[in-house]
Amino acid sequence: MVTADHPTLESMTELLDTSSFVSVPDLTHLGTVVTVWAHPDDEAYLAGGLLAALRDAGQRAVCVTATRGEAADPHATAGERAALAARRTEELAASLAVLGVTEHRWLDLPDGGCADLDPSGPVRCLVSILDEVRPDTVVTFGPDGVTGHPDHRTVGAWTEEALRRAAVDPLVLHPVAPLEPVDAALDEELDLYAEGGPRTCADDEVDLALPLTGAALDRKVEALLRQRSQTGPLVDAIGLERYRAWVATELFATPVRAG
Fold it and tell me: How far apart are CA 245 and CA 184, in angstroms?
């Protein structure tokens, strides 16, 4: 269990400087970007800084989320799952507003059950989105799913197949991790990689690195705090400063070429 003696989430939120949000390095070469995720909060954890920077630069950024995250508690009743889905829907809207993202699409698929679905329907939906938006860049899970979660891996595979079928040929980027973990002790305490670890890359294998500091990091953390049902207990437990350091770097790499 993650434990620590720290202020509450409400008091820690007051520490955030959200009055002077700034952009991170120039990302205009990415053009219009579509990001595809499995659950609400995937986008903020893995690409919150990227999404905010894109929007600050006036670039189009469309976020796609496959499920509403209703299965976060495996012991919840059907009613509790419905309530959580509604809450996470509202939280994601608030989080995306902080990041400046105004275009979002739900696939409305069952949380925890993506791998059991016939992929033809989700792939068709993604092809439709890609052909409509015509992105220059697509950001989604690689085969590792970052944490190995089956929904993550499945959504990444759907997106890969949709890209084969769509009438677009964008740059594809996957979230990756550094060779040395940012906070290995916390990863272990959370059992974060129980289902599989992320693809790790040396510096020269990373195609896009966003080390967030100052107001850019404040903005990402604020977006994460808006998804309190998922982030609140963790931040309360470990403290804001440790949490900020844990989420401060976003790394992306192009897919590994077969063979």
Answer: 12
pLDDT in tens, 21-41: 334 578 999 999 999 999 999
Contact at 8 Å (CB) between 62 and 99?
no
Distance CA 88, CA 229 (A): 7
Q: How far apart are CA 200 and CA 149, in angstroms?
A: 16
- What whole-number distance in Å separates Cα of residue 43 and Cα of residue 56? 17
Show me where the domains of the chain are located: 9-16+27-248
* Class for the domain spanning 9-16+27-248: alpha beta
Residue pLDDT, tens place only, 147-177:
999 999 999 999 999 999 999 999 999 999 9
Tell me the average confidence (pLDDT) per consecutive run of 10 residues in the chain, 259 residues long: 38 42 71 98 98 97 97 88 96 98 98 97 98 98 98 98 98 98 96 96 97 97 98 97 98 88
In terms of DSSP H, where are the helices of 100-176? 120-133, 150-165
Dmax of the chain from CA atoms? 53
Closest of 165, 245, 249, 172 to residue 207, by C-alpha: 172
Count helices and strands (H / E) in the chain: 9, 8
